[in-house]
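User: Here's a chain of 223 residues. Predict its fold as tokens.
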Amino acid sequence: MSRFKNEVLHLQAHVRTLRIGAGALFVLALGLGAGWWSAPRDLTLHIPPDLRSGSVRKWWDVPPESVYAFSFYIFQQLNRWPTDGEQDYARNLQALSAYLTPSCKAFLQQDYGYRRSTGELRERVRGVYEIPGRGYGDDPTGRVKAISRDDWRVTLDLSADEYYGAEQVKRALVRYSLKVVRLDIDPERNPFGLALDCYSQAPQRITAPTAASPVAPSPGETQ
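Assistant: Prediction complete.
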């Protein structure tokens, strides 16, 4: 009789151990679930375009090539007027507002109003593109300058072409010095985590392949 009683006590002890283990696993699962829930859903990592070699960097570090690529892409899209500058410019400002700082957006809206009032937008077609031999790969150290961990100055040498109907009314080689800041506040609308803060200095007209001379700033030349 005592043998059966001991067996029952042993089984009861085993069941108690299993219950304690199950309880511990439940608490552990709750802790893991809380950690998973509090973890960020997205994490932006900037990987250099050249993947032939490895790269080790801090997750918050933004490499200069990524800053340049962002600046050129947004600036080019901002200045792309495929049909009518009066409509395209306004539409670009709205579509790209997440990639502009509030002060830059206000400046560009003022520029839009000035150009519209002087007739520089109606039926204008515009586009900008890199001058061959003056891209990031040709002078990487001179194209992006880090001011701080969250601020950069980017130099773009671009050709700006404008047409009125079928007639070309402008072709200018211009050096734009842009300010770029970290603005990682809305990943849904701005996955880059960067924003244009307009110009660090007035644009310069490039008069020769190896020389550049400053021109007076005006709304017609700051876009």
